[in-house]
Specification:
Number of strands: 5
Shape: globular
Distance between the termini: 28 Å
Helix content: 40-55%
Radius of gyration: 18 Å
Order of helices and strands: HEHHEHEHHHHHHHHHEHEH
Strand content: 5-15%
Number of helices: 15
Length: about 260
Amino acid sequence: DRHDARELSLLREDAAASPNAPPGIVLMGSSQVVHAFDVARIGNHIHRPVYRRAVAGLFIAELVASQQFSDFNPRNRLILMMSGFDLGARYDLYPDILRPLSTPSGLRHVRTAASWPFFIRRWRVFADISFASICDLWRSRDYARLVLQNPFSVKPSDSPASEAPALEAQAKAYHELGSNPEMVDLCLQALAGFLSEMSSRTAEIIVLEGRVNPDYRTKELTVLSQQLREFLLAQQQLGHIRYVSLEEQNLDIPD
């Protein structure tokens, strides 16, 4: 929608201004990062620049694909926050979501992680997002179409509505997390490539274990969270990241 298009445009605009920016903290992730960190307050406290590379829906495949937006100074510290929800949220690769976020360096990890049958079945998707990663006109085509189709329209004010349907839909979605094991495996393999490369291109990578709110604690989310935790602990053993679990964060966040 228009809000998401605006958020993506702001992320890309900020990233475009970063190549010569001084070193600082780069925050990367989905809505968990958007709502967890006050960028201005952190920057004022540590007296260093803080760059936000986070937007709702930037789950693992999208995060990896957007690597170039966060790779601009070798003295940066990269902070990620992710949970089992990020690992299992996508059933497939969705070109409309990946198109505005894809970069050549990031897509390399996604393509490498894809099995040959997975790649063959989705060759059109890979062709689409690969072209978008090097051509801004193609990357921006959906946003431009939205503007051209509604040149003088004004977004209607939201009418008051009950939150119950949205919460019910969210609860249902939690039970569908990770329903495509092939996609879960691709995300882990792509993330491994991303962390391996970025660990040599930044001063440090810190990965915070995230959580979602409301916390439904479904079986699917529990399994995915444990799977991601084991993966990140292995990445820490390899020296690629510093992993901070929920227990170590010692935060009391109400549901």
